Amino acid sequence: EYDLRDTIKTEKKLLLFSGFYPRRRSKNNILYVFRAGLNIFVSYAQLFSMIVQMVMDRNDLSKLSETILFFMTHVTFLGKLTNFGYYRSNLFNIEDALTNPVFYGFSSECLAVLKKKMASCNLVAKIFRMLCILAVLLYTSVPFLDESKTKSLPLPGWLPFNTRKYYYLGVIFQIASVSITAYNNSSIDILTWMLITVATAEFDILKENLKTINFRSECEARANKTVFKNCIKHHKAIVKYENEFYYNVLFYCTISYDFSLIHKIEATFSKGIFLQFFASVVSFPSVQFGFLVMYLLCMLWQVGMYCWFGHDVMTTSNDIGHFFYMSNWYESRVTIRKDFYIFFERTKKPVTLTAGKFITLSLTTLTGILRSSYSYFAVLQHIYKKP
Q: Transmembrane residues, as ranges (predicted)?
């Protein structure tokens, strides 16, 4: 009664509309390709605009830091979007993995565990989307509400025409660019979080099934052995699904080429430095300062959720052996205990999601990023204020 593929149906529809999620049928292919091409063109045009602006402001540290702040966001997004589009056909492998019969046929209690887990992830996704929408709205209101800047564009960037004469044309272009970034970036991130949460929920179901096996009953010894073997198959299928997800989605979409997830974390770390620095030179009551606070919340939420869900799947998979040990396995027959030992050894290695095989996505990584970001911000601010 519950199709695991429905957990990503919202993100699938959103990315299909923008032309980046793969389709099994080629109906209306021209419109589909046009939408994707338009998204890519506007995004790369904005990237070129900021590069030119950085060259022009290379001698002004305050203006340069503002441009670098948004440039880093845009570069990491384009890297993720380009790789997502190039390797998008791999998502079919994930959808096929979610139809594995071993993930179905559980009790209503297990289904409730799965739904509760997905509901919490949906709540996180809604909050993130609301933060993105508020950031875009607040960002577009900067040139209209901040009286200190006359006809200033929402984003720092160079445009090949007189922005004072054709002001609203420039505003429309930059609002379209930031909206495309928020739309696609949030959809790809939430899609990733949902797929990780599916694995975490399946691990929770497996833990409860292992814990409730009753090895005391001699008359049900053969049935218990079958249940235990099904749990082994379930565990193997979850680990295989996680590998499919990592190498077909997370690896190719966020780690391929130079735009790896480790670079994303490094870029976020750098964004934190420049964001704090730029906020320190902006007056407190201004609308621009309020936008920077909202932008900081979006940035922390985005990276924090990658680390949170990575930490969650790691700790949940690490508890498999502990939950099985809590059952009355010691009352089982000696003939089956050899299988127990092999299973115990297999569960000693938790499932971990890494950034480029270098950094584990965990809460420890997140605190390290924030701590280092603030330390370097203090150095940068000291250099800026130094006479």
A: 30-56, 68-87, 127-145, 166-184, 245-262, 274-297
Instruction: Check residue 23 and give its pLDDT.
Output: 87
Residue type, 38: L
Q: What is the Cα–Cα distance from 210 to 316, expressed in whole angstroms? A: 14
Checking if the pLDDT of 39 tops 60, the result is: yes
Summary count for the chain: helices (H), strands (E): 14, 2
> CA-CA distance, 149 to 252, in Å (whole number)?
42
pLDDT above 60 (res 256): no
User: How far is 64 from 59, CA to CA, in rounded Å?
Assistant: 8
Query: What is the Cα–Cα distance from 352 to 347, expressed in whole angstroms?
Result: 12
Q: What was the pLDDT predicted at 247?
A: 59
Q: How many residues does the chain have?
A: 387
Cβ(193)–Cβ(10) below 8 Å: no
Q: How far apart are CA 66 and CA 139, in angstroms?
A: 13
How would DSSP label each residue in 117-182? Answer: HHHHHHHHHHHHHHHHHHHHHHHHTHHHH-TTSSS--SS----SS-TTTTHHHHHHHHHHHHHHHH
Q: Is residue 210 part of a domain?
A: yes
Do the domain assignments include residue 6?
Answer: no
pTM score > 0.90 for this model? Answer: no
Specify if 16 maps to a domain: no
Question: By residue range, what is the domain housing residue 262?
Answer: 77-150+188-385
Is residue 67 a part of any domain in this protein?
A: no
Phi-psi region of 28 (alpha: psi -120 to 50; beta: other; left: phi over 0): left
